[in-house]
Amino acid sequence: MLSVAAVPAPDSVAQAYPTRPIRIIALSSPASGPDIVGRLIGSKFTEAWGQQVIVDTRPGATGIIGAEIASKAAPDGHTLLIVTAQAVIVSVMYEKLPYDLLKDFAPISLMASTPFLLVVHPSVAAASIKELIALAKAKPGQLLYGSGGSGSPPHLSAEILKSMTGIDIVHVPYKGITPALTDTVGGQVQMVISVIPAVLPTVRAGRVRALGVTSAKRTPLVPDLPTIAESVPGYEFIGWYSLVAPAKTSPAILAKLNAEVVKALKTPELQERLSNLGADPIGSTQGALAAYLPEQVEKMRRAVKDSGARPE
To answer: Which residue of 65, 93, 96, 193 has the lowest C-beta tally within 10 Å?
Structure first.
């Protein structure tokens, strides 16, 4: 009986949580989207619970090192991980990883989504997605598109568009999305798919033409711009930010974290900050994220296979 009494009840564990600073691991560089989202959510955790939250950026080895650290951390809610579309892409591009993205983590919440924007150089004779598809079919292999590298979200979003429409456009990989956008503005490549904040000033200056957003529904970030799906039914490719914990974390702690994330994402302050980042707040249930992650793994696995993307 003593051994049973010595084990704290789940409710009391959750009530006491957190008992020390929380570390949120972001698989990217400082000042990146995951780092900023981690800090925004972390500040709300600190307000609610009085514990410091540290965002630990781990961009090394395309995030593999950081994900492994998180997977092996104590399942007590004091180490959390931000999982993004890029983390899913990495999980399907590498044959052997020291962790399993679906088995080694417990879902907390899908926090926000980031639609991308397809833009073309002004010389491209297309004012809509339908016209771009028609042009690409009339000139197979002649339209070049830039990306932030093989297997990056801008690369795979274009490859999914290729496979769904049968167009033949040629991939030109760059070391990051900024030089890809620069060369689109300069006309060295004809098109690029980019996160909205990075490309919107260029669109407004008339240096590139925006044709469509990659989300299934129109985004409040550019409400007048149609979706690619309005011309290519079923098309969707978005970036997103989710929060997970090591597997075997107490369900009561996971529920406490989820409730605080959902509450935080309803505040006008966080909604405005996320909008500046080009993100639409979500704040899903644990179950919704548990269903979403395997779907994304399969979608990215197909896209990586179709594109022939390999680790660089």
So the answer is: 96
Parallel, antiparallel, or unpaired: how do β-strands 22-26 and 79-84 relate?
A: parallel
Where residue 70 falls (left for φ over 0; alpha for ψ -120 to 50; beta otherwise) is: alpha
Amino acid identity at 191: M
Strand, helix or coil for residue 100: coil
Question: How does DSSP classify residue 75?
Answer: S
Whole-prediction pTM value? 0.89
Look at residues 73, 71, 75, 40 and name the one whose alpha carbon lies nearest to residue 55.
Answer: 40
In the CATH scheme, what is the code of domain 115-230? 3.40.190.10
Residues of the chain with CATH 3.40.190.10: 115-230
pLDDT digits (tens, 9 = 90+) for 151-204: 889 999 999 999 999 999 999 999 888 999 999 999 999 999 998 988 999 999
C-alpha closest to that of 241 among 67, 11, 82: 82
Fold annotation for 2-114+239-307: D-Maltodextrin-Binding Protein; domain 2 (3.40.190)
